[in-house]
Design goal:
Helix content: 40-55%
Radius of gyration: 32 Å
Shape: rod-shaped
Oligomer: single chain
Low-confidence stretches: none
Order of helices and strands: HEEEE
Structural class: alpha+beta
Length: 122
C-alpha cells in the first residue's frame, strides 16, 4: 500500500521576521505622527497665549487712557513692559482722538507687532 500525501496545509507556528519588521515600521510611523501633532499643538498654544496676553495688556492700556478724560489725552505717549511684551502707545488727532497701542510679542522664531487702534470722541 502506498500512502497518499495529505492535502491539508501545514499549520503555521508564529510569525515571520518580515511581518515583525512591517509591524514595527507601521508602529514607528504612527508614533512619529502623534509626536509631530503634539509639537504643533504646543506651539499653537504658546502663540495663542502670547496673543491673549498682548490683547489684555492693550485693553488695559486703552482703558487707563480713556479713564484720564478727554482733555488729558492730548499728546499722550509712553511705553512699558508686561510679561516680556513691549507695549507702547500714542494719542494723535483733535476730534476724534486716535489711540494706537502697539504690543511687540516674542514668537518662535521671530517677534510680531500687534497694533490696536481706537477712537475717542468728545
Amino acid at each position: 500500500m502506498t500512502r497518499v500525501p495529505s492535502r491539508r496545509p501545514r499549520r503555521r507556528r508564529g510569525v515571520s521576521i518580515v511581518e515583525v519588521l512591517i509591524g514595527l515600521v507601521m508602529f514607528t510611523i504612527g508614533l512619529l505622527a502623534l509626536l509631530s501633532g503634539s509639537v504643533m499643538a504646543v506651539r499653537t498654544m504658546q502663540t495663542s497665549q502670547g496673543f491673549a496676553v498682548a490683547s489684555v495688556a492693550a485693553q488695559n492700556t486703552l482703558d487707563s487712557l480713556k479713564a484720564l478724560g478727554w482733555a488729558a489725552l492730548t499728546g499722550q505717549s509712553g511705553s512699558y513692559t508686561s510679561r516680556g511684551h513691549a507695549i507702547s502707545w500714542n494719542v494723535t488727532g483733535a476730534n476724534p482722538r486716535k489711540i494706537v497701542v502697539v504690543v511687540v510679542r516674542h514668537t518662535l522664531p521671530t517677534t510680531k507687532a500687534d497694533s490696536f487702534v481706537t477712537y475717542v470722541a468728545q
